[in-house]
Design a protein that fits this description.
- With 186 residues, the protein is mostly helical.
- The protein folds into three domains: 52 residues, no CATH class; 38 residues; 57 residues.
- Helices cover 68% and strands 3% of the residues.
- It has seven helices and two strands; from the N terminus they run βαβαααααα.
- The protein has a two-stranded antiparallel sheet with strand order 1-2.
- It starts with 6 loop residues before the first strand and ends in a 9-residue tail after the last helix.
- It binds zinc ion (ZN).
- Zinc ion (ZN) binds next to helix 1 and helix 2.
Length: 186
């Protein structure tokens, strides 16, 4: 394929809401791409790598620390983390409801509509079993991430200060990605 363009579009830059068309020199070379250039611009590649390293570094440190714990210590932290998770969930129930309302719209369903939804969901579930299973696995995975975050938080008192921010980031990410998996009736 002959590529004669002198500028290239970077989708990530566009997603970040900044100038998305760059000169070709802003892209790394990548032989596996049709145009021989990276999919993302150099800055995006850099940001992606740094982000990945930062996140991974934490995960690795975390795994090492947890591995060094005795089973009793581990169980204790898990319990504490779960307690904290439930307490936080309880304390932020209204916010969760509000988020849910924004997401699903202002409507309040009648019992008939609720039943209809339920039946629809059940039909959808049987029709999309594989997808539903994947979504469930995804949900479990996110729960696991949250637990890891909580365990991490409990390892030092000053981490409690950053917990709300981290938790907000996570729960938002979790919320955006989940569709029907969060029960809003509880
Ligand atoms: Zn970019």
């Amino acid at each position: 394929m002959i590529e004669q363009a002198t500028i290239k579009y970077c989708k990530r830059c566009a997603d970040m809401g900044r100038e998305a068309t760059h000169p070709l020199t802003a892209f790394n070379k990548n032989k596996s791409m049709p145009d021989g250039l990276g999919f993302y611009c150099r800055q995006c590649e850099h940001e992606r790598t740094s982000l990945y390293r930062v996140r991974n570094a934490d995960a690795i440190r975390q795994r090492t620390r947890v591995a060094a714990l005795s089973p009793e210590q581990r169980a204790y932290r898990q319990t504490k983390a779960l307690e904290m998770y439930h307490r936080h969930k309880e304390e932020h129930r209204d916010e969760a409801r509000e988020r849910s309302r924004r997401y699903y719209g202002e409507r309040r369903d009648t019992p008939e509509q609720k039943l209809k939804n339920k039946l629809h969901n059940e039909r959808y579930y049987t029709q999309h079993k594989a997808k539903a299973h994947a979504a469930h696995r995804d949900y479990q995975h996110r729960k696991q991430i949250l637990t890891t975050l909580l365990v991490w938080t409990l390892q030092s008192p000053n981490r409690l200060q950053v917990f709300p921010t981290l938790y907000a980031t996570f729960s938002q990410a979790v919320y955006v990605r989940s569709t029907k998996s969060e029960d809003t009736s509880a």
